[in-house]
Amino acid sequence: MPLTPSWVASANDADSDFPLNNLPYGVFSTDTLDARCGVAIGDMVLDMAEAEAQGIIDLTDEPLFDVPFWNELMEQGPAVWTALRNRLTDLLAEGAKDRALVEPLLVPMADAALHMPLVVSEFTDFYAGRHHATNVGTMFRGAENALPPNWLHIPIGYNGRASSVVVSGTDIRRPWGQLKSPDHATPAFLPCRRFDLELEMGAIVGMASDGPITVAEADAAIFGYVLLNDWSARDIQAWEYQPLGPFQAKATATSISPWIVTKAALEPFRTDTPAREFELLDHLKDSGPMLYDIALDITLAPQGKTATTIARTNYSQMYYSAAQQLAHHATSGCPMNVGDLLGSGTISGPTKPERGSLLELSWGGKEPLTLDTGDTRTFLEDGDRLTLSGAAHGDGYRVGFGTCTGTILPALTDPFAR
Ligand code: CA
């Protein structure tokens, strides 16, 4: 599929994340505009609240876009999602007859502050990357028992906290927690020493369900995707996770990128999940290609220094798709809501430079990484700035996600000081 040209010239650059083929949804404000819905096009943002107020976009009786979240559009369902995408394409395409109406509603992205693009209803995080699960399992249980016995049969996950999901650019404070070093007989309450990132994709549920749904229905219910960094305190996790899984280790923060890239924009980039070692039960079988070919990378910049790319991988490396995860999530009758966020699990490829966490890149701290600056890292240090990027690559264009960044602040001296 080729580039669809836009009259917004910057959208036609081959290296723009936001060509007309993309049209991702975010929330922005400026010095003069309150936070509201916006659509990225090249290096501009279309003010959707104003476009709706002027009747240029007119999908529903009640306004959808004068609020700082996209949940109300999601609530309208797939027919309205498609109508909006078609209308935006008409308004922004080269030769559009309404260009003169739309042009005054474009705000330079450089002048816009970006906010959370949705109200996250609930957050669930999965563990669906085979290379990641194998690496972590090998470190903790040995290569023979790397994958838990259930792993090749269900996409395992845990219920996280919507309250801890933050938008890209939010600083991340190193947490305190209860740790139990192998060298000490008793646990201690200390700042985390093995703070890490996890490169993931987040899928956003756009249609509610109340009871089991098929994988095809789950795929149809997904509204879009974001980059997701699931900050992880490995030393807190090692002590607390037995037997109920991660809790405080994953509750400090999870960062997401500010632009929701819609499932519609990603359609040309669908790929199959990998070959199955065991046939999945019928209710979890793919009914078509449900992963996406999205190139992903991580950079790390020590405080005041340049960034080094520490990993490159691809979303197509996952063993389970978001649709399979959503279908599994609903099997028990668990109600799923508009605005639910599903983390894919850490995305790692088969080789060392494709590993999506420092736990894997430094092999549990035993193999420090050397950055381009000459600094070395096992886990994150205070002042480190982490940036996730991602894009699907078309013929002369890219459907990009922008970036998902976070900078590590030092732990508080006294976390209970008032
Ligand atoms: Ca995770």
Describe this structure in words.
The protein is α+β, with helices and mostly antiparallel strands. It folds into two domains: 9-115, SH3 type barrels (Roll); 123-409, Fumarylacetoacetase-like, C-terminal domain (Fumarylacetoacetate hydrolase, domain 2, Alpha-Beta Complex), CATH 3.90.850. The chain is 17% helix and 27% strand. α6 (215-221) crosses α9. The relative contact order is 0.18. Bound molecules: calcium ion. Calcium ion (CA) binds at residues 125, 198, 200, 230, 343, 345-346. Calcium ion (CA) binds next to loops.
Kindly list the characteristics that best describe this protein.
single chain, 418 residues, SH3 type barrels, Fumarylacetoacetate hydrolase, domain 2, five-stranded antiparallel β-sheet, globular, binds calcium ion
CATH class of the largest domain: Alpha Beta
The CATH topology of the largest domain turns out to be Fumarylacetoacetate hydrolase, domain 2
**Could you list the spans in which at least 5 consecutive residues all have pLDDT below 50?**
none
The end-to-end distance, rounded to whole angstroms, is 57 Å
Please indicate the percent range of residues in DSSP E strands (runs of 2 or more). 25-35%
Ions, cofactors and other ligands present here are: calcium ion
Summed over residues and divided by their number, the pLDDT gives a mean of 97
Classify the secondary structure makeup into a structural class.
alpha+beta
Q: Helix share of residues?
A: 10-25%
In the CATH hierarchy, the architecture of the largest domain is: Alpha-Beta Complex
Radius of gyration computed on alpha carbons: 21 Å
C-alpha geometry: globular
Q: Please describe the biggest sheet, giving its number of strands, its sense, and whether it closes into a barrel.
A: 8 strands, mixed
Give the tally of structural domains: 2
Let me know the number of strands: 26
The CATH homologous superfamily of the largest domain corresponds to: Fumarylacetoacetase-like, C-terminal domain
The tally of helices reads: 10
